[in-house]
Amino acid sequence: MDADVDFFxxxxxxxxxxxxxxxxxxxxxxxxxxxxxxxxxxxxxxxRAADMPAVRAWTESLWGSxxxxxxxxxxxxxxxxxxxxxxxxxxxxxxxxxxTAAEKAKLIDRFGHRCAFxxxxxxxxxxxxxxxxxxxxxAYWGHTNPTQHAAFQCMWLxxxxxxxxxxxxxxxxxxxxxxxxxxxxxxxxxxxxxxGLIDPRGxxxxxxxxDGLERFLSxx
Length: 220
Hints:
Elements: H1 2-7, H2 19-36, H3 40-49, H4 53-63, H5 73-76, H6 101-111, H7 125-134, H8 150-154, E1 157-161, E2 176-180, H9 181-187
Antiparallel strand pairs: 1-2
Helix pairs in contact: 2-3, 4-9
């Protein structure tokens, strides 16, 4: 019984981040500096170094196949919640699925470029696309998980609904969080209570100097 209580205790995130994620972020940060200094060879080498198998494995443990990761249930920790909002038919959901561009900017200004759950650095899709255009071999991005750069995939910034859209949540700035892709897709359609996550909107936001590599766009 005590083991069950510990297992289902409230938690900040579904899986604590590993040190390799922050190292990969540091490497991409240095790659950005090298790019802005005109050293493309150094930038490419650093981007390649950030593509770490350990980072991919961390991401896959949250959203990958349960057959490949048989301990995934220890991360999901789903529990039945009485009177939880039901899954709604598509026609009954809020029509507008995502925040507007202005609302997204407000959310990033509010949360910064950090996952509201696990705290890892995050990077907007537009920045990743810019990296891929300038360094297509190093910052590769295919159509399947194994063909996507591990660090850019893990740190992919998401606009995640605290109350899932499928459960009736709207896309207002009061209901949307900045998260990483693994925390977003790992939780899927479950409510915070169903997976035992503490609502980050009630926790003071710790801002850092991580800029999401936005400065990369300042050099063509």
